[in-house]
Amino acid sequence: xxxxxxxxxxxxxxxxxxxxxxxxxxxxxxxxxxxxxxxxxxxxxxxxxxxxxxxxxxxxxxxxxxxxxxxxxxxxxxxxxxxxxxxxxxxxxxxxxxxxxxxxxxxxxxxxxxxxxxxxxxxxxxxxxxxxxxxxxxxxxxxxxxxxxxxxxxxxxxxxxxxxxxxxxxxxxxxxxxxxxxxxxxxxxxxxxxxxxxxxxxxxxxxxxxxxxxxxxxxxxxxxxxxxxxxxxxxxxxxxxxxxxxxxxxxxxxxxxxxxxxxxxxxxxxxxxxxxxxxxxxxxxxxxxxxxxxxxxxxxxxxxxxxxxxxxxxxxxxxxxxxxxxxxxxxxxxxxxx
Length: 338
Prior knowledge:
By secondary structure, this protein is of the alpha+beta class. It contains 13 helices and eight strands.
């Protein structure tokens, strides 16, 4: 008998898992009814609303009368059980009150700070954001290089230049047999302490980035060289042997192309600011004070073991923060376990 009751409860919960919670007890309803009894009324509008809350996949199940009766039966059972719970006084249960508070907070946040119209964000604000974050939308061509430095000054330039040419010839000869020849030679011979440890790899950089750090001649060689080709470049630092090892195409997204994404972000930021100001106003009006002495006495339970559930680190109670997208709908309690 117990198993049958649990199974019935599970069936009701599953069907109604996508539905919005209904306050317990008899309620005044208007409009034609699809089912009614002593203290129980399910109207056509209510049936339609609960059905529309199901996923499109589940709704396909209820195309004929028998299937509609199956769904209606679950609604009736839910109303009957809710009335029975109200008669037992469960509406005053602390857990029920907490669930109701959470649902009300979520409803409040949804109504006041839910999704708005992106058209409310002025074009001037979108353009300003785009201009201030242009690096996110416009990325130049980037080239990856490996480089080996023979440091030189005005006094030893001729000697160091000859040394660099000798290393270049050595590199070209050994690279035919050894793919790691450049990296090995850079570790052994490069005078650039910052890159010799990783075989001379400079990573991906734009032409401006190369020019700022290594000079215009180096940048020009990096962007005009062929992949895998070793070239000798003279700069203020000395003589560089440069090899192009990879390329990344540039990206240019205009403000019109990213307008919806920027508007959405600005709207979220606006809602969050409005939410924070609203909560601060309510807190000030409530004249909230904190008793540090009593707060200090509260014992914090240890964190649950991994996989044991519980609120993630830094989590907030449902409804305590404004939504990033549409505010979540309060969920039905999980079905009881057999």
